[in-house]
Amino acid sequence: MIAVKTDHRVTTPAGTSTVTDLVKRVPGRSWQRLRTGSGTKGERHYDWAMIEVLADDTPDGHRVGQSALLIRRHRYTGALSFYRCWSAATVPLHVLVDVVGRRWRIEEDFQAAKGLTGLDQGQVTTWTSWHRWCLISMISYVLPAVIAGLEHRDSADHAHVELVPVSCRELLKLLRILVPARPRQNIDPDHALHRSHWRRRHQHRAAACHRRWNEVTAVSVT
């Protein structure tokens, strides 16, 4: 599965056209509102449609399988995203949507590693040096990711605590204040913990409001 641009051309039994032109022919009953994943403010819902296209780029000697164009539409703005999908066997729409969600989580991990541990800041010129830099960066990212994951698991057992799970970015911010032998000037550790607690509590309230709004406006159609 790969994301494609709006001018990407696909072939259907009716001919070849861009994905932007093809989406105009999708009937309203073909759209399904499905849960895509969970964000900072609750579950995300989008409208999805799938169009079977011809696998015109399959190399000779390979199985044709199922080739499809997956379309995601934002339920408020109407913004469209397109994905070119292939599978060895026929799969339903909700399975492809689940794969998109997994793909997005992988991209989020890469973005977090770039922002927190400098995954993309290694100014090296050889393969060995690049490999070492990426390894060090990813190992550095493992520590906050594991701690945040354990805290997220513990928070599920204490649902009455109105706090969002600590994120990797929030955790690193606290570690930089609390762990060094010489605390930063003009930064009170107790104040930093109190502010983190306050911020996570308000994020929890925002997420709860968003989830209640979703319960009213985002009815999943399966």
How many E-type strands?
Answer: 7
Strand order of the largest sheet: 1-7-6-5-4
Mean pLDDT: 79
Helix content: 40-55%
The number of distinct helices, counting runs of at least 4 residues, comes to 5
Protein name: Transposase IS4-like domain-containing protein
InterPro entries: RNaseH-like_sf
Word description of this protein:
It is a single chain. The longest helix has 31 residues, at 127-157. The protein folds into two domains: 2-92, no CATH class; 118-212, no CATH class. It has helices at residues 19-23, 93-117, 127-157, 168-178, 189-217, and strands spanning 2-4, 9-12, 15-18, 32-39, 42-52, 66-73, 80-87. It is built from five helices and seven strands.
Task: Briefly summarize what is shown.
This is Transposase IS4-like domain-containing protein. By secondary structure, this protein is α+β, with helices and mostly antiparallel strands. It has helices at residues 19-23, 93-117, 127-157, 168-178, 189-217; strands spanning 2-4, 9-12, 15-18, 32-39, 42-52, 66-73, 80-87.
Helices and strands in order, then pairings?
Blueprint: E1 2-4, E2 9-12, E3 15-18, H1 19-23, E4 32-39, E5 42-52, E6 66-73, E7 80-87, H2 93-117, H3 127-157, H4 168-178, H5 189-217
Antiparallel strand pairs: 1-7, 2-3, 4-5, 5-6, 6-7
Characteristic terms for this protein:
222 residues, 2 domains, two-stranded antiparallel sheet, RNaseH-like_sf, Transposase IS4-like domain-containing protein, alpha+beta
